[in-house]
From TrEMBL:
This is C2 domain-containing protein. Signal peptide: none annotated. It comes from Fistulifera solaris. InterPro entries: C2_dom, C2_domain_sf, C2B_Copine, Copine, Copine_C, VWF_A, vWFA_dom_sf. Belongs to the copine family. The keyword Cell division does not apply. One of its GO terms (molecular function) is calcium-dependent phospholipid binding. One of its GO terms (cellular component) is plasma membrane.
Length: 579
């Protein structure tokens, strides 16, 4: 799924120097190498904001995101120096998964040099580009008697925010100096940024007189839509620039062209051999991205609950013997590695970090139990709590037994998943549950397991099963096709050994179907995403970057290109971690 990310900062340290005024900050965003075989990729550079220690950059960047694949973005902030080297103002690294799991899809980091940087991530809606050129005429001079204004314009779209609708600045034009009839250069802007793919979304055009102090003077504004721009360019009509209800100039649309959008391309093809310009108003229904996706639900606060179930059948071997699957030593065994890797990804979407841990296939007091609680607590906190509950089972008097039966664990998870969603909806929120089953062998009754999964498909549940060890798991492939006619597929089976040297590969393969499974569940039950959760900078929890990993990243900043000349890797394979 494609995401758009943006950044802003507060209370940056002024590094301009004595008697040199206030810093002119800009930011460079780099997707660091977080998996083996990848290279750091510079996403781009924001605009420079003059004399401002609280910059809100309007530049938007795009990345592809897949649940289970770690994506980290480094934000390096600099003070632009016209003659000389730019001065560093601070840097931070953001995990995009953590941003998506945070309230409002925003994370904040304190900078060691002073100040706080914020990164927000959200679903990119719509596709294609708009080429827009505006021209002003007879603008009112707000500069004073002896000089002329230096106009630039901003584009803002109307978005839902705390307390109602508000304008979100998405583009800022270059400045035209000393000119009350400015012809701004053509700008190219992503339609997902400008209007979320909706050609009828309100857009506000605001014109300002640029001031070197950063305190720009308003020159007027008007509202329109993408379709309004297109029609104005086609018909030659103009927009009145308004200030306190009075016209203070006019704005004409020299160019308004869209490309890369289904529907618009078809119209252009039909009209290319006619004398009519290939520009037309387009219904927003043609352009809408349609159904909601995983990001829409998490943006609305849908929590991902995690349940872990661990195989304690006798085929795992004597846990006291080195080389057996449950043997505990200074190095993590394969069960521990899989738990740590997968739960750590899903935990980013669960605000309370509380997880039930179950076992199956062990005998207590002479009776084989196919679903029992691991550890003394009904729910444990975080990945470390899951691992601790797993370790405590071996001091509980169990006898590893058999057969391998998943059905009770799946039924328990399905019931908890439905109960959790029911209670969440009563509170005005949403939940979805992922059951992680770790096993060393094939199930004893494949047909019973398939029936159980089929019945559980009506619950808000995904089941991911990881096969640990060297057993022949070929008979487990039925799990991926266990859904009956018209039923939702909720299961995914992955062999640990095929990914044992790369934790990112394991989490990607294990979790890749969860976003689609979640979306299909909610849509099939007529449950729409909740409105995006909102936050204000003042109440957002801020991470102290002193505890963050160090990223050795060297950037060569040229006029036309930014190059990573050193570092840029944050890859640490969780499989190599010790207990």
């Amino acid at each position: 799924m494609k995401l758009e990310i943006s950044v802003h900062a507060l209370k940056l340290k002024n590094v301009a120097g004595a008697f040199k005024g206030t810093s002119d900050p800009f930011a460079i965003l780099t997707q660091v190498a977080a998996t083996p075989g990848t290279q750091p990729n510079v996403l781009g550079k924001t605009e420079v904001i003059k004399n401002n220690l609280n910059p809100h950059w309007v530049k938007v960047f795009y990345i592809d995101y897949e649940l289970g694949i770690p994506i980290k973005v480094a934000v390096n902030i600099f003070d632009e120096v016209t003659k000389g080297d730019n001065k560093g103002m601070g840097s931070a690294v953001f995990d995009i998964g953590e941003c998506l799991g945070a309230r409002g899809n925003v994370k904040a980091k304190k900078l060691r040099k002073g100040g706080t940087v914020f990164l927000s991530a959200r679903k990119a809606q719509g596709s294609g580009l708009m080429r827009l050129q505006l021209k002003g005429a007879n603008l009112k001079n707000v500069e004073g008697m002896f000089s002329k204004s230096d106009p630039f314009f901003e584009l803002s779209k109307k978005v839902s925010n705390a307390g109602g609708l508000t304008w979100d600045n998405v583009h800022r034009s270059p400045v035209v100096k000393n000119n009350l009839n400015p012809a701004w250069e053509t700008t190219i802007i992503e339609l997902s940024t400008l209007c979320d793919g909706d050609f009828d979304m309100p857009i506000q055009v605001s014109v300002f007189d640029h001031e070197s102090s950063g305190k720009h003077k308003a020159m007027g504004k008007f509202e329109t839509t993408v379709n309004g721009f297109i029609q104005a360019a086609k018909n030659g009509s103009t927009f009145d620039l308004l200030q306190k209800g009075k016209a203070v100039g006019s704005i004409s649309v020299v160019k308004a062209e869209v490309s890369g959008v289904a529907g618009v391309e078809d119209v252009a093809e039909q009209m290319k051999n006619t004398s009519i310009a290939p520009i037309t108003a387009v219904s927003s229904s043609v352009l809408s991205s349609g159904s909601p996706n995983f990001v829409d639900y998490t943006a609305g606060g849908c929590a991902i609950n995690v349940i872990v179930a661990i195989d304690f059948t006798g085929s795992n071997g004597d846990p006291r013997q080195p080389g057996t699957l449950h043997y505990l030593s200074s190095e993590r065994n394969d069960y521990e590695k899989a738990i740590a890797a997968i739960v750590s990804v899903l935990a980013k979407y669960d605000s309370d970090q509380s997880f039930p841990v179950y076992g199956f296939g062990a005998k207590y007091a002479g009776e084989v139990r196919h679903c029992f609680q691991c550890g003394p607590q009904e729910e444990v906190k975080g990945v470390s709590g899951v691992l601790d509950a797993y370790h405590k089972v071996f001091a509980s008097g169990l006898v590893m037994s058999g057969p391998t039966v998943f059905t009770e664990v799946i039924e328990t998870a399905a019931a908890k998943a439905q109960s959790s969603l029911d209670m969440a909806q009563q509170r005005g929120s949403q939940t979805y549950t992922v059951l992680l089953i770790l096993t060393d062998g094939a199930v004893s009754d494949a047909h019973a397991t398939a029936r159980c999964l089929d019945q559980a498909s009506d619950a808000p549940l995904s089941v991911v099963i990881v096969g640990v060890g060297n057993a022949d798991f070929s008979s487990m492939q039925f799990l991926d096709d266990a859904a009956g006619p018209g039923k939702r597929d909720i299961a995914q089976f992955v062999e640990f050994n095929k990914h044992k040297h790369n934790s990112a590969s394991l989490t990607s393969e294990t979790l890749k179907e969860v976003p689609t499974q979640l979306t299909k569940y909610f849509l099939s039950h007529g449950i729409a995403p909740l409105p995006p959760l909102q936050r204000t900078d003042s109440i957002l929890q801020i991470d102290d970057d002193d505890d963050e990993e160090e990223i050795d990243l060297t950037l060569d900043i040229g006029e036309d290109e930014i190059v990573v000349s050193g570092g840029g890797s944050s890859f640490v394979d969780g499989f190599n971690a010790s207990r």
